[in-house]
Write a structure and sequence with these properties.
The protein has no helices and 11 strands. By secondary structure, it is mainly β. It is globular.
């Protein structure tokens, strides 16, 4: 089992920045993918950014809508994944969820709300 605790959401004005954090605990030794998803009201949950780690490599991928504005990173010592969000837009308003994958299992956080005012 993996437990995830997200933090960092809140209210910000257009053009502002926020950093989301997701701390993992439990059976974390085999985590190979950590990512952020979001779900806006009335819309489906979508991938925002993901970080896939191998023994000697790391790969990141981003939704087109956030490329150049958001950055995903991971602190292995703290078992934490971050999402730095810059130049926020009203359309970024959503509940942001952390997801980790260990082997064939996916684990989700409870979500943190990000609201961008115009």
């Amino acid at each position: 089992q993996v437990q995830l605790v997200e933090s960092g959401g809140g209210l910000v004005q257009t053009g502002g920045s926020l950093r989301l954090s997701c701390a993992a605990s439990g059976s974390i030794s085999s985590i190979n993918v950590m990512g952020w998803y979001r779900q806006a009201p009335g819309k489906q949950r979508e991938l925002v950014a993901a970080l896939t780690s191998g023994a000697l490599w790391t790969k990141t991928n981003y939704a087109d809508s956030v490329k150049g504005r958001f950055t995903i990173s991971r602190d292995n010592a703290k078992n934490t994944v971050y999402l730095q969000m810059n130049s926020l837009k009203p359309e970024d308003t959503a509940v942001y969820y952390c997801k980790v994958t260990t082997g064939a299992m996916d684990y989700w956080g409870k979500g943190t709300l990000v609201t961008v005012s115009s």
